[in-house]
Each structure stands twice: as C-alpha cells, then as structure tokens.
Design goal:
alpha/beta, Rossmann fold, six-stranded parallel β-sheet
Length: 387
Amino acid sequence: MKIFMVLGNEFPPDVRVENEAVSLINAGHEVHLACFTRKQMPENEIFKGIVIHRISISVFLYKSSVAALTAPFYFSLWKRFLERIVKKHEIEVLHIHDLPLVRVGKELKKRHGLKLVVDLHENWPALLRVSPHTKTLPGRLLSPDFLWVRYEKNVLRHADMIIVVVRESKERLEELGLDRSRIIVVSNTLKLDNFELPDMQPDPQYFTLYYAGGITYHRGLQTVIEAIALVRDYIPVIRLLIAGSGKYLNRLQELVDRYNLKAHVEFTGHLPLSGVAANLALADAALIPHLKTAHTDSTIPHKLFQYMYANKPVVASNCIPLERIISETRGGIIFKSGSAVDLADKIMKLYNKEVTILPARKRVEQEFNWDRDAAILVDCYEQLGNS
C-alpha cells in the first residue's frame, strides 16, 4: 500500500515515527511522510527509504497549532499541502501522528476515499492541560480544554485504526465509547540493534543516579534534586547525572545552587544516543521521576526500555503504566510522585541493598522490544489492506 504519514513536527529525529515507517517499508509498503521544517531542511528527500515532503512554517504558525480549534487557518495550511501529495502519489492510507491534525485526515479521507490511521503518541488533551502555555489567560482562551476533549472524541470516530502506546491508553479510549477492536497497542519499545551498550561498569567512587530526556517541570526532576539534598549526608558519594535539555533547566540549576549540590549534580546537556548509552552504563540506577497526571497515567517513555535493557534498577514515580511494568518485571522501585521524602527513602533502600531488583534485559529481549511491536503494526496494516 501507499502510506502517507503526517507529523506536525520536524523529522528526523523521531524514534517512534522512524521505527514505524522503516518497519512498514520492510514489509513491502511505500511510505511517504509530511512534516514541517523551521530549520531550512530540504523540501524533499529520501531518508532510510521514507519519502519526505516538508513545508516551511514560521514561528507564528508553529505556535498557532495549540489554538487550531479556535483559529483553523493552521488546519487550512496543512490541508492544502497534504492534498497535493495525496493526489500526486495516489495515496491509499493516511497515517496521522498525534491528535491535532486528525481533522485534516478525516476531511481528506472523505474526499478521496482513503483509509485513516490515527497514531496517538500522547493523551493530547491531558498533555495540554499540564503545559505552561495553556495556563496563561491567552492560552485558556485560545486553547480551552473542553474543546480538545470534545474534538478528540469526535474525530477519532472516523479512524479505521487507532494506535496507542500503552494498555492504559487503550482503556481510556474505550471509556470514551470508541470501538476497542479498532484500537491497537504498539508501544514505545526499544529497537535492539539501534542501542549499543558499551562494556563499562559503574564508577565505584560514586553512587550514580541517571536521567535522560526532556527537562520540563512535569518530568519531576525538581523532586530528585530535593531528594538528593535529603540523602547526601548519608550517601556522601551520591551523584546525579542529568542528560537532556529543556525550558526548566535554569530552574533546576537554581535548585542545585540553593541546596549547595554542585558537587553532586551534573548537567551533561543533550547527548546523542551513543552518549546516552555510555552514561547509562556508568550508572548504578536510572530515573523516571515524572509527575503523576492524566497524561503520564496513559503513556510510557521510551527510556524505560533502555534502562531495563541495560539491567539498571529503575527508580520511577507511581504513574500507572510505569508502576505496572516495573512491578511485573521487578526491575525497579516505585516512589510517590512529587514526594522528595519518599524518593529519598527509596534511594536509601536501594543504596543499602534493602530491596531485591531483578535484571530486566531478558524481558526486553523477549517481550518489550520493537521487533515484537513492529509485527503487530505490520499485521494490522495487512488486515487494513484486506478490509
């Protein structure tokens, strides 16, 4: 089939989109991808077999996406761009990544008789609910929560297939009244041949905790820094490595200064995948301290499976999918979201070896890996083509 993926972001990089597209190409499908660029990347190129079509957009248009339901010119821009490609390349399936552009997909499906696949990386209304820009007065006026909740339920009814990243997300959509037979789970698992761990051991001079990923308030890193301040007198060798970037970085650095933790906390900046793996190899444990919200209770981070594959004890907050998988595998320890005291207690237990943590690499090799999820995706596309 001729599949047309649509991503309202830059590409590359996007691990999930790349994994899905390459897997479908390997299964014999032709995959096109529409995305935007603000980095003056070429309008057209082929990347790992994916035929990429880019549209240049301004900062204003990029930021206007959050107000798409009240200022629909964002939809109009995408509709004109996508329709040209649909006609030129005789597209058969539209595969829309994330919720905002599903309305455009619905309209093109009706006009051209296409199949519509919606790939929900996130619980979008819940994500907007915790985003800083929607808490301002203009944000509340331009992107009211009730509109996104209603929009999600209405547009998803038109999808032939809905892809979600975790079981809890499927259950959430079922509660909205959507047909469970059209909802499949293709998780954010690890593509094993893309993640090479160096032959390195944790530095015995330190007890190292490691975090890799975005740096925003809702990632919960402020809770970790507060916990480090509570345990440093008991674990003088404790060290926290934070790899990543984001708008909350300055606030975290201020916290480090306030608690006089410069000897214990290091910010590495954004790292390539090889750097993430190298720092992970040096860690004694790895962190996912996300604040518990409706968003984090219905998604799963890719880094969980990196941590598990590296056989690192995972210290995670009690978001429902994290707690379920870590409890099933016994691959880590759970603390109460936002509680520095409870996290400090769990770090002490881990350091003093008061808890039993099982190596989780075999579970990743057998179950939580991309080969398994790719097979689910390819099979569902086969059924879609036969329907």
